[in-house]
From TrEMBL:
This is Eukaryotic translation initiation factor 3 subunit E N-terminal domain-containing protein. GO terms for cellular component: eukaryotic translation initiation factor 3 complex. GO terms for molecular function: translation initiation factor activity. InterPro entries: eIF3e, eIF3e_N. Keywords: Cytoplasm, Initiation factor, Protein biosynthesis. Pfam families: eIF3_N. Residues 12-133 form the Eukaryotic translation initiation factor 3 subunit E N-terminal domain.
Length: 133
């Protein structure tokens, strides 16, 4: 984040907000600042923000996007193999979650089941256990 802060002018509120926001809320603001830097033609500022984006997203599941950022920041054609491994790990985790939730996902696509769900969470759980377990 220091790269991003260094690129921003003193009147920008982003450094004050950043400590209060999660990454997924902060990222669009950083994207906006990157666009402003590019539009103004300030290459150094845009580069600092790009480097900050890479650091911000480094340990997320956005492996493909982070690999592209890495290639852009370091001006290389290939990202390190760790990004491909991370991508495979993320896909494996996604497939695992899809398998674990397949039954409830299928139930929620059925109109008869969705029509019987209520705003009461406890009643919904009991209904699903009783009629669809």
């Amino acid at each position: 984040m220091e790269d991003i802060y260094a690129a921003l002018d003193g009147e920008n509120i982003l450094p004050k907000l950043a400590s209060q926001l999660s990454r997924h809320l902060l990222f669009p603001l950083v994207e906006f600042e990157a666009g402003r830097a590019e539009d103004s033609g300030n290459e150094e500022k845009a580069r600092q923000i790009l480097n900050g984006k890479l650091k911000l997203l480094q340990d997320t599941n956005m492996a493909d996007y982070v690999a592209e950022l890495y290639k852009e920041v370091h001006n290389v054609n290939e990202a390190p193999a760790e990004y491909a491994k991370k991508r495979n790990d993320v896909i494996a985790q996604l497939e695992k979650y899809e398998q674990e939730t397949a039954r409830i996902s299928e139930l929620l696509t059925r109109e008869d089941v969705v029509g019987q769900l209520r705003s009461d969470k406890v009643a919904n759980l009991e209904f699903l256990k009783k009629d669809h377990e």
